[in-house]
UniProtKB/TrEMBL annotation:
Compositionally biased residues, Polar residues: 684-701, 920-950, 1007-1026
Originating organism: Denticeps clupeoides (denticle herring)
Localization: Cytoplasm, Cytosol
Protein name: TBC1 domain family member 8B
Gene Ontology molecular functions: calcium ion binding; GTPase activator activity
PANTHER family, sorted: PROTEIN VASCULAR ASSOCIATED DEATH 1, CHLOROPLASTIC (PTHR47666), TBC1 DOMAIN FAMILY MEMBER 8B (PTHR47666:SF4)
Length: 1088
């Protein structure tokens, strides 16, 4: 490999390098400890030094230096992993460079020419992906070591690498951590002790930072029951974030089967880079903080001061610019941020160049003044350019009109407003006057205080739209909802059926949903969303949430609020596995351990809180609180996100702490919490009694009432210090654990379904791990894997992981107990077709286990027999004989087994000949159905098998000839018909073809026979004996084989399943590398 020219000191290098060749301009050297005379203490010390210092010499122990006769400076220009590789580079220099160097007059010109030539070679052979790396030259060397040490496929994309220590018990191993798209790898070499780790990201269940007495900071990785600890990172936080992103990316792509069609950074696993991952994480954090549409990306960031008119001071923060928004967030603890849509900006002025100030003029006669803006000229130009290209009209919540005019703007708007309600409205009007109203409103501590006190009924829909970011989604997609409603009208699917079933279960006691008006609006919103996002479709709890949204928002607004909740604020909540809710429950348990230690000490098992709190998270407390109280919780949720729900959950447990500590079982604890929720009221609610849903039990004298405003205020006072960034970090940490827990549950369910297969539970677990890993191997290095493209999340757990023919064949070759044979490929193909009954080209784990070797002698033989039913009759018999011969190859009793098969073959042929003669004598003109008789009428008295040699001849093959050739040549002399050109000939629908080319959809016969290609009519000339069809039944073959003890012993021989599984586990990745997938694909003339 050519290297970027770097200076080396030859004087010191002579201690570690040995010169092999040299001339006036170049020197070829070999690293000490490698090649001839390698080994010993020198090799150990040099190898250790190369690993610790990350020297390329560890994997490339040969190098070429450039020198000039009158200079003491040497330049390293090439390295090689072998003598052949470095010799090719040396010869190229001799042929292409040496002659040219003689024309230069000075050493400087020679060195400059050589360096330019080497850089040109590097640019030509460099990979496109390396251009995106921070240091392409260093990355090329790291990539060389990565490929050499771990022997992964060339397509495996190295993302980054770090120096660190891996702890084996209490002993640290200094080495290098390599992070690729699909694997976490580590390599260390210390004094002859080589440590090599390769861990798949999808097998990791825990990834967290930790500290101990010995290690101040380290990263702990748990995978497959093993624990790996890495420490001594130069940038531990950066390393940890990259590992988190790669683990999350692998889970989303391989387990959740996401394709990332709209994300160019993640769409191709072969082009993932460290810089791309960092950009993706930055964009996600930017969108999450400002609640922006998923199309927005962070383009530019500027530090500046913003003049806050209501406080009369400048606050320090950052200006963040995306495609359609200009946002500001303070950094001085004032918790001030605002979002400015580009569509709202009228002009940008630069009043004072000395202070680097900008004034942004907005619609509504408002202006924002920024000062001390770094590169303010560039920012002004960017905003002006975007303002000129943005032609979307102004949108606001107040002037939006629902597309369905018959639906009122608010279903529960009560005209009996209390005095406190009017006071709340007045407080918000003052806030609007000071901080602005609409999308460009300042959000500060005062805004949160007003939210905690409760939002007025008249403003609730508007503020929900604003704080959730749904107002921006709706403004950038005018008419989108109407199009969805029209497109989904009359559509029928599983989602629409479930929606219809749940419509009348959504707030059934509320007057708004006791008429067709409310029910129809709810149906349209849910159906439109299911049409928009078929991956989610419809999930229970969406109906309850949407019902509440419709109470305070117009129909189109309710739709966009649902989009914001499902796709941005509560990701992965509303699907069949509710992963997002389970992750947040794990976060909730972690917070209980930290914040409610007294409760933790009393209840060591916190899974109870996970089961009882699931509805809290899925419905935002709507299902457990009266509606007039639950809407206050929803207010806080739209402002603070999931943090508000976690805070309220902690406050609920804290409020009931004494009662929970006295509980004796879970049922008693559930009763206490239910009684508490029934006692929660909203004394400020202006809703009439017919709408309020407070339980009558809350009026009992023995039950004290709890006002929802007081409960929320207490939650913010005690737990308001929980940061959103902390919650997101806990989410990422727990997601891998939740995913692996669900995967383990899936495995247990699949294994239970497959228990009828004759394997132990432990062996089934290992088989499932191999099967699942093989499924992932088909997805690792391609963005268009069939397993990813055709994944259906609605399938049962048994169908979630399936194998196509290529992957099945590779796993079949690893697990077959008879050793590698010449017909392994054919056996795999026939076995795959035998179990692929629906002809979709995929098999699940249970089908895979059913076909494996297990059972009695008869069951094993029947399995081999069935594999050959896809062939023509004569070919079936010939191929079965070939298969048996191939299975015996390498067996200690190979010669005896060959002779036994020859005797069985001869016996079967004689039985067939006797049957044929009996048929000719008894019924010469009719077709017999006896399995011992031919299928076609015969008129000749001469048997076509008279040319076959006696059994003694067949059973005594020449030493230099393969026994299979001896028998099959005799069969072919008997004119059994030509063997098909392709043993996998099939019909157009993928089923095995019959001799006439038609499709045979199923094979249920237990006899090796098929109908003749052309059945003669009464006036047809007699068929020649050589064209007759003949067959053997399974019972005949079984009876013949039972006469040969050596064959019975071989087939009955028990399989060492433990060693076979262990060998398959070790060789699985290596086999995938060595076998190209295209080698296993079905030939073009045999479509499946």
């Amino acid at each position: 490999m050519w290297l970027k020219p770097e200076e080396v000191l030859l004087k010191n290098a002579l201690k570690l390098w040995v010169t092999e060749k040299c001339n006036d301009y170049f020197i070829l050297q070999r690293r000490r400890g490698y090649g001839e005379g390698s080994g010993g203490l020198t090799g150990l010390l040099v190898g250790t030094l190369d690993t610790v210092l990350d020297s390329t010499a560890k994997v490339a122990p040969f190098r070429i230096l450039h020198q000039t006769p009158d200079s003491q400076v040497y330049w390293n220009i090439a390295c090689g992993a072998s003598q052949e590789e470095i010799t090719q580079h040396w010869e190229w220099l001799q042929q292409n460079i040496m002659r040219t160097l003689s024309v230069f007059d000075s050493s400087e010109d020679i060195t400059s020419f050589v360096q330019g030539k080497i850089r040109g070679l590097i640019a030509e052979e460099g990979k496109v992906s390396l251009v995106q790396e921070d240091d392409p030259e260093k990355f090329r060397e790291a990539l060389l070591r990565f490929e050499s040490w771990f022997c992964l496929p060339e397509k495996e994309k190295l993302v980054t690498y770090y120096s660190c220590s891996y702890w084996r018990g209490r002993v640290p191993c200094q080495g290098w951590l390599y992070l690729s798209t699909n694997f976490l790898c580590f390599y260390s070499y210390l004094l002859g002790n080589e440590v090599k780790l390769v861990v798949s990201w999808v097998e990791i269940s825990r990834l967290e930072k930790m500290s101990s007495v010995l290690l101040t900071e380290s990263i702990r990785v748990c995978a497959g029951g093993e624990e790996y600890v890495f420490s001594m990172f130069l940038h531990l936080q950066q390393t940890f974030l990259i590992m988190e992103q790669l683990g999350n990316y692998a889970v989303r792509r391989l387990i959740d089967k996401e394709m990332f069609p709209d994300d160019h950074i993640l769409s191709d696993p072969l082009q993932i880079t460290k810089r791309g991952l960092e950009t993706h994480a930055r964009n996600e954090a930017f969108r999450a903080f400002f609640r922006l549409p998923r199309e927005e990306n962070l383009l530019e960031v500027y530090e500046s001061f913003l003049w806050v008119p209501f406080s009369h001071f400048n606050t320090l923060g950052k200006i963040c610019v995306s495609e359609n928004y200009m946002c500001f967030a303070s950094q001085d603890g004032s918790q001030c941020h605002l979002i400015i849509p580009i569509r709202e900006i009228l002009s940008v002025e630069k009043p004072d160049r000395s202070s680097r100030a900008l004034t942004v003029c907005l619609r509504g006669k408002r202006a924002l003044k920024f000062s001390e803006v770094r590169d303010f000229e560039r920012l002004a130009g960017t905003i002006r350019r975007k303002c000129g290209s943005t032609a979307s009209p102004q949108h606001s919540v107040s002037n939006q009109v629902t597309s369905l005019s018959e639906f009122p703007s608010s279903l529960s708007m009560c005209v009996f407003l209390h005095l406190k309600e009017k006071m709340k409205e007045q407080s918000w009007q003052i806030h609007f006057a000071e901080y602005g109203r609409g999308t460009s409103m300042f959000c500060t501590k005062k805004t949160r205080d007003l939210i905690v006190r409760g939002v007025p009924e008249m403003l609730r829909g508007e503020l929900w739209m604003l704080f959730s970011g749904a107002v921006n989604d709706m403004a950038t997609h005018p008419g989108y909802y109407t199009e969805l409603v029209e497109a989904s009208l009359g559509a029928s699917s599983l989602a629409t059926d479930e929606i219809e079933r749940d419509l009348h279960r959504s707030l059934p006691d509320h007057p708004a949903f006791q008429s067709d008006t409310g029910i129809s609006a709810l149906r349209r919103v849910l159906t439109a969303y299911a049409y928009r996002n078929p991956k989610i479709g419809y999930c229970q709890a969406m109906n309850i949430l949407t019902s509440v949204l419709l109470l305070y928002a117009k129909e189109e607004e309710a739709f966009w609020l649902l989009v914001a909740v499902c796709e941005r604020m509560l990701p992965d909540y509303f699907n069949r596995r509710i992963i997002g809710a389970l992750v947040d429950q794990a976060v909730f348990e972690d917070l209980i351990r930290v914040r409610l230690t007294q409760l933790t000490e009393h209840m060591t098992d916190l899974t109870f809180f996970s089961s009882v709190s699931l509805s809290w998270f899925l419905t935002l407390f709507i299902s457990v609180l009266p509606i007039e109280s639950a809407v206050n919780v929803v207010d806080c949720f739209f402002y603070d996100g999931i943090k508000a729900i976690l805070q309220l959950g902690l406050a609920t447990l804290d409020y009931n702490m004494d009662a929970l500590l006295c509980c004796h079982d879970d049922a008693e604890a559930v009763t206490i919490l239910n009684r508490f929720f029934d006692s929660v009221t909203n004394k400020d609610s202006p809703l009439p009694p017919t709408v309020q849903q407070a339980s009558a039990g809350s009026n009992d004298k023995g039950t004290s009432r709890v006002d929802i405003s007081d409960l929320i205020r207490e939650a913010y006072e005690k737990y308001g210090d929980i940061q959103s960034e902390e919650v997101e970090s806990m989410r990422r940490r727990n997601k891998l654990y939740v995913i692996q827990t669900l995967e383990d549950t899936t495995k247990q369910n699949v294994v239970i379904v497959s228990q009828e297969v004759k394997f132990t539970a432990g062996h089934l677990d290992e088989l499932y791990a191999l099967f699942k890993r093989q499924h992932f191997l088909s997805c690792y290095w391609t963005a268009n894997s069939p397993a990813l493209l055709h994944h259906d999340p609605s399938l049962a757990y048994l169908e979630q992981y399936q194998l196509g023919l290529s992957q099945y064949s590779l796993l079949f070759s690893l697990l077959q107990p008879w050793g590698p044979g010449t017909n392994t490929h054919s056996l795999a193909l026939w076995a795959f077709r035998l179990i692929d009954e629906n002809h979709d080209g995929l098999v699940n784990f249970k089908e895979f286990c059913d076909i494996l070797y297990s059972g009695t002698f008869t069951e094993k033989l029947k399995f081999l027999f069935k594999l050959h039913l896809f062939l023509l009759p004569q070919t079936q018999f010939i191929q079965l004989s070939k298969t048996l011969y191939a299975l015996f190859h390498g067996d200690p009793e190979e010669e005896s087994l060959f002779r036994a098969v020859a005797r069985v073959t001869s016996l079967l042929l004689r039985m067939e000949e006797v049957g044929r003669r009996l048929q000719e004598n008894t019924s010469p003109s009719k077709t017999s159905t006896s399995p011992l008789q031919p299928l076609s009428p015969a008129t000749s008295t001469t048997s076509p098998f008279q040319t076959i040699s006696p059994p003694e001849t067949i059973a005594s093959p020449r030493p230099d000839a393969a026994p299979v050739e001896t028998v099959t040549s005799k069969l072919q002399v008997a004119h059994l018909g030509p063997e098909p050109s392709s043993p996998c000939k099939t019909g157009s629908d993928g089923a095995p073809a019959s001799p006439d080319g038609s499709s045979n959809p199923s094979i249920s016969s237990s006899t090796m026979e098929t109908e003749p290609a052309n059945t003669p009519s009464d006036n047809t000339a007699p068929t020649s004996p050589t064209d007759m069809e003949w067959s053997f039944s399974f019972e005949q073959i079984l009876a013949s084989l039972l006469n040969e003890p050596v064959l019975v012993r071989f087939i009955e021989k028990p399989v060492d399943t433990e060693n076979l599984l262990d060998r398959a586990r070790k060789d699985q990745l290596k086999a995938q590398m060595m076998k190209d997938v295209s080698d296993w694909s079905i030939p073009a003339e045999c479509p499946h």
